Predict the structure of Voltage-gated potassium channel subunit beta-1.
Amino acid sequence: MEHLTLKGTDLKVSPICLGTWQFNDSSKDITWPAQSAEESKAIVDKCIELGINFFDTAEAYKNSEKVLGNALEGRRRDVVVASKFGFREGPGTPPYSAKEIEEALTRSLTNLKTDYIDILQIHFPSFVKDAKETIAELERQKALGRIRYYGLSNYGPKNMKEFMEAGGKPVVNQIGYNLLWRSPELAMIPDCRKYGINLLAYSPLQQGLLTGKFSKLSDVPEGRRRGKLFNKDSTPLARHGQEGCEQEVDEALKKISEICKEANVAMNSAALSWILQQDGVEVVIAGASTPQQVIDNSKIVQLENDVIRKMTEATEPVKKKIGATLDQWAPVDRCE
Ligand SMILES: NC(=O)c1ccc[n+]([C@@H]2O[C@H](COP(=O)([O-])OP(=O)(O)OC[C@H]3O[C@@H](n4cnc5c(N)ncnc54)[C@H](OP(=O)(O)O)[C@@H]3O)[C@@H](O)[C@H]2O)c1
């Protein structure tokens, strides 16, 4: 797999990053089923075999850092690891002071069995107590060699502007972006380009919807129906309180399926390739529950312009209904 150099860094990464929210050491969470550490290790092994050298984790992903650290033993220096601080006390986590950032980083280094993290990201803007204090601490950790770079996650245009004006030098912003979740096109993707920040697209398969494996939306597991694409009554787990756009999503998926059949490309490949062919998006962060999914997702293709155009058109009604919101889950947008 061809690697690219992330802008503003010397990090050479695959355009597919493995997302490891699913690495839970056999303890399922609200979104993902149980995955054993052995299954996670087999996924990591498959990535490395295929040239996927970029891994995304977070202190918030139950057991993920530990499972990833164990799976990478002996190979840490061959790969690029991004983690995040935030959610030490769940959704009500108060913002981090410099000392709390340092403590979180120490925990992450221990979990990951490493002495450096390539990119430490701020999981949500709300975890920043004071931008200048946070930036000074991240720069200090960089100087100590405990992190190589720092980055953002779930930053909206206003959040990013404030962080940049405070003197921040983030190298990435990771945000939900896929054919069914295109709100970043309105401002976030152009802003990342303007600031020279790499945009990493998370949930690129919209948590499995864009693989074509669910014949109807009600087949999507409950924890993945919590977001704003679905009606608030689709599951009691939803907290956004909105009507969603299930009809538009259903119609879009049917059209995408037809377009993929005509173009003779699997839907998962088409969905990932569509993102990577958008201007200003460097990397997709895709999760997996099996090594076979990693193989399937590694098949990035060059889609014809006409196919790109048709796929884009198919999801315009969803884009229109979703509007500018960047946050799929919370009633009040956490990404401003
Ligand atoms: N910064 C943030 O706030 C944030 C938020 C969300 C995600 N992320 C990051 O982004 C990563 C990816 O996002 P995500 O996990 O939400 O969504 P995703 O990558 O769109 O979906 C991953 C899931 O889709 C299914 N899948 C993947 N490939 C498949 C294939 N080829 N065929 C059929 N099914 C397939 C698997 O679930 P099943 O097999 O169980 O169906 C897999 O766990 C996360 O792991 C995390 O690292 C970050």
User: Anything to note?
Assistant: The pocket of NAP is lined by residues 19-22, 33, 56, 153-154, 174, 202-208, 211, 213, 268, 285-289, 293, 296-297 (CB under 6 Å). The chain has one domain: 4-333. The chain has a mean pLDDT of 97. The first strand starts at residue 4 and ends at 5.
